[in-house]
Amino acid sequence: MPFVCSWKPAALPVLGALLAAAPAGAQPAPRAAIAQVLATQTAAWNRGDIPGFMQGYWQSDSLVFIGQKGLTYGWQPTLAHYRKSYPNAAAMGQLGFSGLRITPLGPDAAEVVGGWHLARPAPLGDVGGHFLLVFRRIQGRWVIVADHTS
């Protein structure tokens, strides 16, 4: 059964409290660990930190990002894509996720489907869309290995 939630920056303290309640040294459940990655990405984005946002992605040439402009392979080219597309804080806006559906595909893989929204000032205006993320647990860490965002 998938985990579905609406993600707002105000939910960060609640998620932090839930994760802090886990026994010391315990690995959080996949859904909680993946939700934490998304929360960390949201916080980094909303403070204008694209390299921090990118920490949620697999740092590999095998990472794939699929967007409106086609395929981008590799962590470094994906970072360059984000920097070019969002050159300043106004262009970045404030990120929010909604309707997140986290579905484990096995012990070390999961998919996340949801919506994204950037609240941006005029004249840029708000933008948003939907995404499908493929997460894998690599060396004990959940990371995005494929991102299809529209």
Automatic annotation (TrEMBL):
Domain DUF4440: 34-144
Ranges annotated as spanning the membrane: none
Protein name, entry field: Ketosteroid isomerase-like protein
One Pfam family here: DUF4440
Domain of life: Bacteria
Native organism taxonomy: Bacteria, Pseudomonadati, Bacteroidota, Cytophagia, Cytophagales
InterPro entries per the UniProt record, alphabetical: DUF4440, NTF2-like_dom_sf
Keywords from the UniProt entry: Signal
Endpoints of the signal sequence: 1-26
